[in-house]
From TrEMBL:
SUPFAM superfamilies: Subunit XI (6.4 kDa protein) of cytochrome bc1 complex (Ubiquinol-cytochrome c reductase) (SSF81518). InterPro entries: Single_a-helix_sf, UQCR. This is Cytochrome b-c1 complex subunit 10. One of its GO terms (biological process) is mitochondrial electron transport, ubiquinol to cytochrome c. It comes from the Eukaryota.
């Protein structure tokens, strides 16, 4: 159905870009964690959460 709306050519181009967009999305996510309050985000990761317990 999607290929009928936008065309087979653009569907194949989009499928070729999926791995690249996945990598860049991961890089952007790590960048957001790095430049924001990383502890606020990483408190939800179970292994890291135990390392930084407040007394």
């Amino acid at each position: 159905m999607l290929s009928k709306l936008i065309g087979q050519k653009y569907v194949s181009i989009g499928k070729a870009w999926i791995p690249t967009l996945t990598i860049w999305g991961g890089v952007a996510g790590i960048g957001i964690i790095h430049f924001t309050d990383w502890r606020l985000i990483l408190d939800y990761v179970p292994y890291i959460n135990g390392k930084f317990k407040k007394d």
